[in-house]
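Think of the structure tokens as a kind of shorthand, similar to the way a musician reads notation: each symbol stands for something richer, in this case the local conformation of the backbone. In the example below we present two proteins back to back. Begin with the first one, reading the sequence and then the tokens, and try to describe in your own words what changes along the chain.
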Amino acid sequence: MTIFNWKRAVIKVGSSLIAPSNHQCSTQYLEAIAKFISDSRKQGKEVILVSSGSVAAGRGKIAHKHKPSIAEKQAMAAIGQTQMMANWASLFDFDCAQILLTSDDLHNRTRYVNIKNTLRELLKNNSLPIVNENDTVAVNELKVGDNDNLAAYTALVAEADTLIICSDIDGLYDADPRKNPTAKLMPEINNIDQSIFDLAGGAGSDVGTGGMQTKIQAAEKCVNSGIQTLIVNGRDASAFETLAKGQIPGTLFTPKTTLDNARDTWLRHTLKVRGTISVDLGAKQALLEKGASLLPSGIIDVQGQFDAGEAVNICFEEQPIAKGLAIFNAADLTSIKGLKSNQIEAKLGYASSKEVIHRDDLVLL
């Protein structure tokens, strides 16, 4: 049996556990989770919560039609967020800290580092960080699966070794257990490929917004960065008793053996791509085989509008092979594509670098 060891974990709890009635907060399913968190902290382990539920918690406070508008959802979140935090705080005898994020906070390098530093200080001072998306202002974040992926990003920025995703079923099955009584739980998955995604169905609840697809997406982000990921049944109190014994009650996604460093993780998973640079065979080989920087001589096309310092995909024959931070903006890159590095200054009137993307700011895909 695989022993479940960890030192710093992110635990994601969804709306259907926070507000099972779909109208207000409840501790019905949270007491077992809270006990696991408290007992783990007493053992010297560190925990960060990613908690959905603000919209569901405030749903009963805002008049709305069958399908609430964005504005109505944001109003629900504004009311429900305080109730959700109070609900968690009632279960602990230590401080809980609220952290509200948007995707932009994770795409900006400076804010990303600030989040990391804030989490570090909170853990250092024995507080429990509780992270949620800022649903009161972030329209794009009110979409399917947002907090499963937010939990993965939080695990990455917090440099956690473990992500625990609470679901409403025991884990990933080889078929839909709601429809197929012979479906079998898959206790351990060592490689996430398309066949694993094919096993995932749609959302199982009209309260939460994340189905198994987004949980596997989150697991994939984490295992590729060396973070073990576990899907457990958040409605089953015995699951957390099993976890406390170092045993696995659900599905464990084992991490890759090679860990990405923090900057590569940020480049790979959290930075939005603003454009595309197409390269020739020589540049492709230099990037993939020699660990080289990208030079202007290897560029054959530039697409998109991006500024210096923004992320772009590097493609060969329309297939992405790398991602990195452009040193020049799109217009200047278009002007110097195909040129040798010593020709940049004569063409642009300046030469901030002989490289287009430095190797330190580049991650292979």
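Once you have a description of the first chain, move to the second and do the same.
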Amino acid sequence: MTFDAIGIAGSALTVHRKWLDAISDNIANVNTARRTDEDAFQARYVVAQAGEGTSGVYVEGAAYGDKEGRLVYDPQNPLADNDGMVRMPDIDLASQMSQLIMAQRGYQANAAVVDRAKTSYEAALQIGR
């Protein structure tokens, strides 16, 4: 039972870490300008899937945002076209920050589960002595 808890929480730690990686990538590229004839930076979203029985959770894959992005008037940008437009990613910074907080809290909660399960297992070993 304890090993199941450690395994399940450990799998969730992996999912939350990958989620944090994707969010930090999105936040880092929120102001990445491209020429209008190029695709915008595409936000990455982690797709998680529940495992069978007590196997936890895993990353099934990734979903990506709109490559069209949004056109922004920025004539001072060296990538601007003749009309002064650049292509920016369609990333909502407020949403990304909210997701960042959720992913951090999920990671912390699962790390606490692993720690408590380990403590419980160590206590059980002490009783057996």
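Compare your description with these statements about the second chain. Residues 2-127 form one domain.
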